[in-house]
């Protein structure tokens, strides 16, 4: 398996008043195609920041970030926003603790939302097949307020998968769910990785969910332990 | 198929009351705009029509003599001044003159009419020249006089209603104990002629003991005549006043132009308020959806997509508001007409507000363009939202 994401000496710092916060420090990491990686660590350890950097949502302050053979960030320079937008749409799917569903759109429309911005053509997934695989087929015409939290997160997963991304980034995807619903989400993620070969990078506090990953990386004070 | 336009439309349903209020504000602005643009045209047209309906471009009267029946009646029939009838022959000598029509105005108080009496206006006219000048007058009954000296009367539409007379009936001129026969009743013209009793001026001279005298001469000049130069020559005549319909029109138009500038300023303020309303609504909507917009950008939405999304929302609001306002302005045109008529010191008899489909489309286009311009700032604010900032804001990190 070849490396899909590579980072070298990756750093991210920001200022809070006069104080400089080093959220991510000198991280070297390779994530291979089809891997299921989870980042664990205490709050403030830098795992979410690292996830945002890997997902091209945020810019590092130093180091190098590569997606396949494409340099995303190096020598203090990053790609232009237009190019980054295209990369995000083509390669990544994102799931967040909050589901961020559009309340005025139906489940089907929420799943289809990325297609309104990026036309992937035949490479994209069929919305009904996708909904069926996530147990949402009977909820397609419902509004988000009419479905449960577990279903909302499944809609968010479907939305992240509709454009057939290579990498699924999940930031505390079970943070707002009870243990039963968390178990359902864990099963779905494992299935996506095992049967569809999607690379998954997960940030979680949930040890049970972290165990789903083939590699668990612990962070402390912005460094890999 | 989910499109940017459908997402924009559905978002407006999220805060229905706010969207409705914004649409209502835009509709009111459009209503004001259409009505004012309609007034701009309608007033001018009606004024021109009224002046043209006079049938002559210049009116010559004795100095100080009221030349409108309404003025004469307001003065209780007093204040009439006379010029000798021979002036007509003198005036005909000028090459610019096409037709002249001598007129003799009289007013008589009739104590038998109404609750406490009514002032009747009699206009003595020349049966040979007057009907030709007033070609727009038509009859509901009868026709013009049979003879230049006949004791006959043609009643204006309202005068006939007031006198309750028909063709063949007799009317008595109070104080003079003379009966005249009604030979015609005019159709409603919307002018002061409706309230006038017309008689042959020779007969009226005789009845009122004004032989050889008239109160005014209506002058119609040749088509290509230099009216200004002709009026200058008339001013040289002693003891007469020259009422130029062209200058009357210009004076009224100037007054109306001043009023129009003021009213257009009010319309501009109304439009600016609507613009601020639209901007506020869309800006609030953008701030409320800060995280959503950030997430959309993480899904591949470009700056152009988000700008378009917000702009579409503005466009939808403006189009609905514009169409609604234009529709209201068409349906309530007569109400607007009455209101303006009430507010203006002078207004012509025709329709004051003239609204057609072209004007409606023009106003909707103006409102929409102004609306979408006001949507640029909120759309830009939304377009430059960074996904990471939106996500972090929801996590309470910034």
What features would you highlight for this structure?
heterodimer; A: 225 residues; six-stranded mixed β-sheet; 11 strands; globular; B: 398 residues; alpha+beta; two-stranded antiparallel sheet; 15 helices
Question: Short description, anyone?
Answer:
The complex is a heterodimer of chains A (225) and B (398). With 225 residues, chain A is α/β, with parallel strands linked by helices.
Overall structural class of chain A, as computed from helix and strand content, comes to: alpha/beta
What class, by secondary structure content of chain B?
A: alpha+beta
pLDDT average of chain B, as an integer? 84
Give the strand tally of chain A: 11
> Tell me about the biggest sheet of chain A?
6 strands, mixed
Low-confidence stretches of chain B: none
Quaternary state of this entry equals heterodimer
Calculate Rg of chain A over CA atoms: 17 Å
Indicate the topology.
The complex is a heterodimer of chains A (225) and B (398).
Chain A: E1 3-16, E2 19-32, E3 36-40, H1 47-54, E4 62-67, E5 70-74, E6 77-78, H2 81-91, E7 92-95, H3 107-117, H4 127-133, H5 149-161, E8 167-171, H6 179-196, E9 199-203, H7 207-210, E10 215-220, E11 223-224
Parallel strand pairs in A: 3-9, 3-10, 7-8, 8-9
Antiparallel strand pairs in A: 1-2, 1-4, 4-5, 5-6, 10-11
Helix pairs in contact in A: 3-5, 5-6
Chain B: H1 4-12, H2 16-53, E1 58-62, H3 69-74, E2 83-84, H4 87-92, E3 97-110, E4 118-125, H5 130-133, E5 139-142, E6 152-155, H6 157-163, E7 170-173, E8 178-186, E9 196-200, H7 201-207, E10 213-214, E11 216-221, H8 227-235, E12 240-244, H9 245-288, H10 290-298, H11 303-331, H12 333-343, H13 357-374, H14 376-383, H15 387-394
Helix pairs in contact in B: 1-11, 2-9, 2-11, 2-13, 9-11, 9-13, 9-14, 10-15, 11-13, 11-14
């Amino acid at each position: 398996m070849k490396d899909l994401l590579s980072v070298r000496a990756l750093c991210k710092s920001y200022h809070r008043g006069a104080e400089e916060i080093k959220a991510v420090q000198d991280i070297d990491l390779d994530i291979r195609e089809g891997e299921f990686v989870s980042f664990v660590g205490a709050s403030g350890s830098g795992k979410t920041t690292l996830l945002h950097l890997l997902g091209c949502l945020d810019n590092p302050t130093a180091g190098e970030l590569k997606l396949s053979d494409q340099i995303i960030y190096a020598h203090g320079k990053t790609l232009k926003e237009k190019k980054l937008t295209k990369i995000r749409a083509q390669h990544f799917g994102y799931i967040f603790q909050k589901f961020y569903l559009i309340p005025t759109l139906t489940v089907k429309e929420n799943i289809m939302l990325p297609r309104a911005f990026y036309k992937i053509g035949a490479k994209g997934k069929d919305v009904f097949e996708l909904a069926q695989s996530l147990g949402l087929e009977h909820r397609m015409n419902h509004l988000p307020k009419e479905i449960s939290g577990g279903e909302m997160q499944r809609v968010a997963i479907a939305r992240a998968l509709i454009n057939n991304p290579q990498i699924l980034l999940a930031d505390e995807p079970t943070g707002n769910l009870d243990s039963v619903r968390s178990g359902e989400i864990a099963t779905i993620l494992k299935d996506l990785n095992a049967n569809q070969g999607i690379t998954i990078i997960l940030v979680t506090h949930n040890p049970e969910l972290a165990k789903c990953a083939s590699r668990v990386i612990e962070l402390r004070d912005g460094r890999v332990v | 198929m989910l499109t940017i336009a459908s997402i924009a439309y559905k978002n407006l349903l999220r805060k229905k009351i706010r969207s409705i209020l914004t649409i209502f504000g835009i509709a009111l602005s459009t209503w004001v705009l259409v009505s004012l643009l309609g007034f701009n045209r309608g007033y001018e047209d009606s004024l021109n029509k009224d002046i043209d309906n006079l049938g002559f471009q210049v009116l010559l009267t004795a100095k100080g003599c009221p030349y409108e029946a309404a003025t004469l009646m307001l003065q209780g029939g007093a204040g009439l001044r006379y010029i000798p009838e021979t002036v007509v022959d003198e005036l005909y000598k000028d090459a610019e003159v096409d037709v002249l029509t001598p007129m003799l105005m009289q007013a008589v108080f009739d104590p038998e009419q109404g609750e406490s009496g009514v002032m009747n206006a009699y206009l003595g006219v020349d049966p040979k020249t007057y009907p030709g000048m007033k070609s727009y007058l038509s009859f509901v009954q009868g026709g013009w006089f049979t003879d230049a000296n006949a004791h006959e009367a043609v009643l204006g539409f309202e005068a006939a209603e007031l006198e309750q007379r028909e063709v063949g009936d007799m009317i008595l001129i109070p104080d003079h104990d003379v009966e005249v026969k009604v030979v015609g009743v005019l159709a409603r013209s919307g002018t002061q002629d409706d309230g006038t009793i017309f008689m042959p001026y020779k007969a009226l001279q005789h009845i009122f003991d004004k032989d050889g005298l008239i109160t005014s001469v209506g002058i119609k000049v040749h088509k290509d005549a230099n009216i200004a130069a002709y009026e200058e020559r008339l001013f040289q005549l002693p003891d007469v006043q020259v009422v130029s319909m062209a200058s009357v029109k210009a004076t009224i138009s100037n007054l109306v132009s001043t009023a129009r500038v003021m009213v257009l300023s009010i319309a501009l303020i109304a439009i600016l308020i609507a613009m601020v309303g639209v901007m506020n609504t869309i800006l609030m909507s953008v701030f409320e959806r800060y995280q959503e917009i950030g997430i959309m950008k993480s899904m591949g939405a470009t700056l152009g997509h988000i700008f378009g999304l917000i702009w579409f929302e503005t466009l939808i609001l403006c189009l609905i508001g514009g169409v609604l306002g234009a529709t209201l302005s068409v349906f309530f045109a007569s109400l607007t007409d009455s209101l303006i008529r009430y507010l203006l010191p002078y207004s012509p008899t025709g329709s004051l507000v003239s609204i057609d489909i072209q004007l409606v489309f023009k106003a909707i286009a103006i409102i929409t363009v102004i609306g979408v311009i006001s949507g640029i700032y909120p759309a830009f604010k939304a377009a430059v939202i960074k996904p990471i900032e939106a996500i972090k804001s929801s996590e309470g990190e910034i």
